[in-house]
Design a protein that fits this description.
Largest sheet: 8 strands, mixed
CATH superfamily of the largest domain: Alpha/Beta hydrolase fold, catalytic domain
Shape: globular
Number of strands: 8
CATH architecture of the largest domain: 3-Layer(aba) Sandwich
Number of domains: 2
Radius of gyration: 26 Å
Helix content: 40-55%
Strand content: 15-25%
CATH topology of the largest domain: Rossmann fold
Structural class: alpha/beta
Strand order of the largest sheet: 1-2-4-3-5-6-7-8
Number of helices: 11
Order of helices and strands: HHHHEEEHEHHEHEHEHEH
Distance between the termini: 107 Å
Length: 318
Amino acid sequence: MAQKKIEKNLNERGYKLLIKTNHTIMKFILFFIAAFVTAALLSYTLKTDIKIPATSKEEILSCYPEDIREIAKMEAVTKEFAALHPDPLYFKSKDPQGKSVSFKTSDGTNGTGYEIRNKKRTKNYLFVIHEWYGLNDYIKQEAELLSNELDNINVIALDLYDGKVAATSDSAMKYMSGVKSERLENIIKGAIAYAGDDAKIFTIGWCFGGMWSLQASILAGKQAAGCVMYYGRPETNIEKLKRLNTEVIGFFANQDKSITPEKVTEFEDNMKTAGKSVTIYRYDAGHGFANPSNPIFNKQARDDSHEKTLSFLKARIK
């Protein structure tokens, strides 16, 4: 009897151990399935616009950002987005026309930029906003070119990376995805304060800078006088677009896999709904077509868009 009791206890313990082991295995299996599904969903959201159904908006708001600036940061860490931005060709300005300037920001630090001041006193300011590489010499050269071609305006190329400049896509990916929107807003607001309460603010930017050109014009409020954006992610929040107080001209690429033609059309529709004026030009080119340091550079598209940019700005600079 004692032997049978021992065998019974052993069998019960073995069964319990087997059940526990099976539970452990199932937990691991469920964990890996959950991880796979999460990765798949994240990959999907980085490649497409995030659509939030009205019925479940509150439930998933904490998981997926509605702010397009945060969506752009999420996209910046994808290989697909990096592939649109080959490492820029090396360029060093030999005869800089401007100088570095510093201004206070509301977070208690300083913002910086590269300024080409007009020879005559003027209340007009053009904020030039760099691509995801940072304020490199290409952008400074573009600011100088605009300063020479436009009259009666001060030009400031803003440094939204606080001195960091990327020479490779890897480092640009790190800088763009790591920067905080609050800090960028503080830099832009600091630049607006530097220009003065009575200044007329014009903005222009490419890619990351194209998105922030529109954001800067929104932040400028009644001081906004003209916005130029090159293949930047458009604002999708119609209530935010309603706060825009200036006309917008945008240049986009039909072959762009990030800011697709569908997104551009949506932007046109949203601006119309918000009661705002926007003029869009589309080119049979790829993302980055206006950047001479990008192998995708399209001179014909760049020259045409640049001419239209000058016409737009000159018509509004008084």
